[in-house]
Write a structure and sequence with these properties.
The structure holds 2 protein chains of 2 kinds. Chain A is mainly beta. Chain A has no helices and 11 strands. In chain A, the strands form 2 sheets. In chain A, strands 2, 4, 5, 6, 9, 10 and 11 form a 7-stranded mixed sheet that branches. Chain A has a 4-stranded antiparallel sheet with strand order 1-3-8-7, with no helix packed on it. The radius of gyration of chain A is 13 Å and the shape is globular. Chain B has strands spanning 4-6, 11-14, 19-25, 30-38, 45-51, 54-58, 61-66, 71-76, 85-93, 102-103, 107-112. By secondary structure, chain B is mainly beta. In chain B, strands 2, 4, 5, 9, 10 and 11 form a 6-stranded mixed sheet that branches. The chains are: A mainly beta, B mainly beta. The A-B interface holds A 4, 31, 33, 35, 40-45, 48, 50, 56, 58, 90, 92, 94, 96-106, 108 and B 4, 6, 8, 32, 34, 41-46, 49, 88, 90, 92, 97-101, 103-106.
């Protein structure tokens, strides 16, 4: 089955801890994206990567970090510097120059 | 002011009715327009894609773009309870980095049997 997997589905974290969200795709897509979804705000872009070993900040990158060491993987670290980390996090991928993004099932992060 | 505005709803319609959804935007450079459907606690899936102005039809779905009014619409004919979901619009300009879209907040649709 081709697609995007995100793990875990639910994640709980204590304040002050860093946490890493996993995103893997087997669609052979060049580009990968991380979004945050909050009620009433739609999807906001955190980081995106159009090629391995390169990534760009999105609209709300503060308090987050990413790496893109492999084409199929784009992990997101939510650091303790992120002031309001509780949200639904979505990973997506797309082929080069394509307008269609394929989304993973999401990870719901709750900070206790 | 957000670049893309979308009424959050909920929009409740009886089964078989036409669902009418829309987004307004402020950036006249937007050229690529998408509609995504998102079921509860799932990732969005692409429904329709339109470039520039005009209409596009796919089965029960019709997407319209009116660039002069900076307004896009999605119509769902013969709505079914399985159409109950949140519908997100997304758009970008031709000079924006490919894949870097602006999303609306989403409209929740409830189709009642």
């Amino acid at each position: 089955d081709g697609g995007i997997t995100q793990s875990p589905k639910y994640l709980f974290r204590k304040e002050g801890q860093n946490v890493t969200l996993s995103c893997e795709q087997n669609l052979n897509h060049d580009a990968m994206y991380w979004y945050r979804q909050d009620p009433g705000q739609g999807l906001r872009l955190i980081y995106y990567s159009q090629i391995v070993n390169d990534f760009q900040k999105g609209d709300i990158a503060e308090g987050y970090s990413v790496s893109r060491e492999k084409k199929e993987s784009f992990p997101l670290t939510v650091t303790s510097a992120q002031k309001n980390p509780t949200a639904f996090y979505l990973c997506a991928s797309s082929a080069r120059d394509s307008n269609e993004q394929f989304f993973g099932p999401g990870t719901r992060l709750t900070v206790l | 002011q957000k670049e893309v505005e979308q009424d959050p709803g909920p929009l409740s319609v009886p089964e078989g009715a036409i669902v009418s959804l829309n987004c307004t935007y402020s950036n006249s450079a937007f050229q690529y327009f998408m509609w995504y459907r998102q079921y509860s606690r799932k990732g969005p899936e692409l429904l329709m894609y339109t470039y520039s102005s005009g209409n596009k039809e796919d089965g029960r779905f019709t997407a319209q773009v009116d660039k002069s009014s900076k307004y896009i619409s999605l119509f769902i004919r013969d709505s079914q309870p399985s159409d109950s979901a949140t519908y997100l619009c997304a758009m970008r300009g031709s000079t924006d980095s490919w894949g870097k879209f602006q999303f609306g907040a989403g409209t929740q649709v409830v189709v009642t049997p």
